[in-house]
Amino acid sequence: MSDHVTIVEVGPRDGLQNEPYTIPTEVKIELIERLADTGLGVVEATSFVAAPAIPQLADAEEVFGRIQRKPGVRYPVLVPNEKGYERARQVGADEIAVFTAASEAFNKKNINCTIAESLQRFAPVLERARADGVRVRGYVSTVLGCPYQGEVPVAEVVRVAEALHEAGCAEISLGDTIGVGTPAKARTMLETVAKSVPMEQLAVHFHDTYGQALANIHACLDAGVRVVDSSVAGLGGCPYARGATGNVATEDVVYMLNGLGMKTGIDLMALARVGDWIAGELDRPRSRTGQAILKRS
């Protein structure tokens, strides 16, 4: 297996979407650009969801239109439907992400439709993306548990991942939205999905609600996954998942990967400085790795 792990930095989108006060557009742009300068190869920039749904990202056009995109860095954006796709394309987005869940209850609360309806909703988006040569990533939420229905059968995760794969998603991110997963469950879920979708097209996305995210990532790395989602300074939380704390911190993930002898191409000190800066801007705690490194320097 390759010793290179691709980190998908989701801080500017997933990390900021649930913040309680409006973050200045200038701060969002600076965050994206500073993250790209750390050696990250993928920085999820924003979301073209309707403003009433996610007010924090209502400035998506301005943010994406003004960032200075660095050669070799990908800047995917989230889109919910054809309108969102059109908005994203108008400002030059060339990679998108669509989203659904493995839990019917969560999907109805989150995007007000069934899983089947969500797949139908973005089918035309995938058709247009294919025609335009736009890469598509698919998110599957609640793969290890749902705040409304509790346990989520692995068979449902497989079914949804298969549907996204067959629809043309180049990569599928499996998300533990409420952070209830443990290493054995996470690995079993991943390996079961990988029987239907090639491992090289899978990614993992863990929230750290119970402090299990790094352990879960380690277990999934052992199983063969090589794409990991994370958020600088551990920013984030799902607005539709009560009690779900932030994503695993990118600094913590990179430190662990360095210790395993795996390669990311990321400058950890530079990343720690970005985490320290954005945590200060948002009055949020720093990541543990970030704090440790900056105190030592």
Automatic annotation (TrEMBL):
The record ties this protein, via Gene3D superfamilies, to:
Aldolase class I
Query: Which InterPro entries would you find in this protein's record?
Result: Aldolase_TIM, HMG_CoA_lyase_AS, HMGL, PYR_CT
Domain called Pyruvate carboxyltransferase: residue spans: 5-272
Q: What's an example of a GO molecular-function annotation for this chain?
A: metal ion binding
Q: Its GO biological process terms?
A: ketone body biosynthetic process; L-leucine catabolic process
Q: Say which family it is in.
A: Belongs to the HMG-CoA lyase family.
- Identification of the protein by name: hydroxymethylglutaryl-CoA lyase
- From which lineage does this chain's organism come? Bacteria, Pseudomonadati, Pseudomonadota, Gammaproteobacteria, Chromatiales
